[in-house]
Amino acid sequence: MRIRASRAVGHLIVVPLLTASLAGASGCGNKKETNDSAKTTDRARQVAAAWDGSTAAAVWRAGYRPMGQVIQLPRGGLRSEADKQAYRDRKFVLRGKMPVTWPKEGRVTWGGKGSLTRRLVGPHASFETLADPPVGEETHLTVTGVKLGEMRLATSRGPATAPAWLFALDGYASPLKMAAALPSDLPRSPIGRAHDIPGYPINRLVKIAADGRSVSVMALHGVCEGPPVVDAVETGSSVVLSSSVKPHGASGKCTDQAKMQLVTVTLKHPLDQRVLLDAITGQPVPYKGLHTTSSR
Q1: Beta bridge partners of 164
Q2: What pLDDT score was predicted for residue 253?
C-alpha cells in the first residue's frame, strides 16, 4: 500500500554511506522506475517469506520489546512552559535519596498472555538518561524521591505491565515513570541485507496507532530528491516496509546528506503481533519514537 509523507522534520543528517543507494534511486525514465518498483516489491516479499514461520519470528514474539513511549510524564503532563522546557533541556536536580538496593530482575506481564523476567536498569542509570549535570540557577525539575513501581506500555506482544522507576517531582501529585526492564535482544535475521535495492532503509518506528491500522516511521530522502514514499507488503505474520524516492530536479550540487521525514503508512489489517520489517536490511524496524513522552 502506497502512502505519502505526513510531516517533515526540519534537520539534516549526514549519511555518506547511502550514496550508492542515492544514485540507484535517482535514475530517470518510467521504465527504470517500474523496474525499481518491481525489484523492491520482490525483495519485500522475499523478506516476508524468510521471516514467516522462522525461528527469528518466534524469538521476536516471545521477547519484550517496547513499541511505545518508555517515559510517561506525571498525569496531565507538565503544567508550565518552563517545566516543559526544563524537561526538553534535561534539567533535573536530585534532592531526594536514591534507593540503596533494588531487585536486579523484574517481571513483565501481558495479562493472561504470559510473562517474562528481564534484567532491570538501576535508578542511577535511569536518572542519568533523564538529566544533564545542573549548571547555575537554570530552571529545573526537582526530583524529591525515587522508587520502583510499574507502568503500562505498548510492546511487540501487545500492552504490558513492566517494572518502572517512579520519579517524584516537586509540585506534582503523580510521578514521572521510566521503564526499567531491559528489552530482549534482537533475533538474528533469516535473510541478509540487500545491496542492489534502490532507496533507503527505514530509519525508525515512531508510533503505532491505537487501533494498529497505521504505523508512523522516519524515512530518509536525499537533498536533491522528492519526499519518500513507503510501501507495505503484508502477510499474516509480518509487514515489510520499503521506502523509495524520486529526483525532484533540484539545481546545484547535491551533497551526501539526507533529510528525515515522518511518514504514516495505513495497513490493510491491524499490525497486532505481526513483526514490522525493513525490506533493505531484512531486520525489524527499530522503535525509537520521536523523543517525546506520554502523560498517562
Answers
A1: 149, 179
A2: 63
Which pLDDT tens digit goes with each residue over 137-156?
778 999 999 999 999 999 99
Least confident of 118-122, 166-170, 270-274, 287-291: 287-291
Q: What whole-number distance in Å separates Cα of residue 228 and Cα of residue 222?
A: 9
Cβ pair 233, 242 in contact under 8 A: yes
263 vs 3: CA distance, rounded Å: 8
User: Looking at the whole model, is its pTM more than 0.85?
Assistant: no
- Beta-carbon contacts of 287 under 8 Å, excluding residues fewer than 6 positions away, are 65, 66, 67, 68, 204, 205
